[in-house]
Amino acid sequence: MLKRMLVVAAALAFAVAPAAAQAGSHKDIVDTAVAAGSFKTLATALQAAGLVDTLKGAGPFTVFAPTDEAFAKIPKADLDALIADKAKLTKVLTYHVVPGKVMAADVTKLKEAKTVEGQMVRIDASNGVKINGANVVKADVEASNGVIHVIDSVILPE
């Protein structure tokens, strides 16, 4: 029963987060993602990489945030190895972040964007929006210091 209540609470938090954000949310990117309930692996990875304080900073940031299901596509041994390698993990996570607040209407006009990691991500808006082949499944989840676009795969720098 408690587990079911937690699942319902997480689902409600995710459903309410975008509406709260549009009403002028005071939650930063990290708190918004945690409240959504579907970014536990991302939150763990951010903590392991020491990036939580950065993404709680002033920003603004645009984060292409992989869901727990996106991280589940990575074999467990590979994911565990990635989380254990702070330098590589930091490189992967910062590849999911673009400086500035880039809303969906602006993303669709771009062909690429430079990430905090330093490399470019490819943007394809010809059939939905894809970031390096990962589908944007939810866009414009606003936070006090930027915006989150939810993606269905982890994207990897070259």
In words, what does this structure look like?
It is a single chain. The protein is of the alpha+beta class. The chain has one domain (2-151): FAS1 domain (Roll), CATH 2.30.180. It is 44% helix and 22% strand. It has a 7-stranded mixed sheet with strand order 2-1-7-6-5-4-3. A hairpin with a 5-residue loop joins strand 4 and strand 5. Helix 3 (40-49) packs across helix 7 (86-94). The protein starts with a helix and ends in a 7-residue tail after the last strand. 32% of the residues are buried.
What's the quick description here?
This protein is α+β, with helices and mostly antiparallel strands. It is 44% helix and 22% strand.
Topology, element by element:
Elements (H helix, E strand, L loop, with lengths): L1 H21 L6 H8 L3 H10 L2 H4 L5 E6 L1 H5 L3 H9 L1 H9 L2 E3 L4 H4 L4 E3 L5 E5 L5 E2 L2 E10 L2 E6 L7
Parallel strand pairs: 1-7
Antiparallel strand pairs: 1-2, 3-4, 4-5, 5-6, 6-7
Helix pairs in contact: 3-7
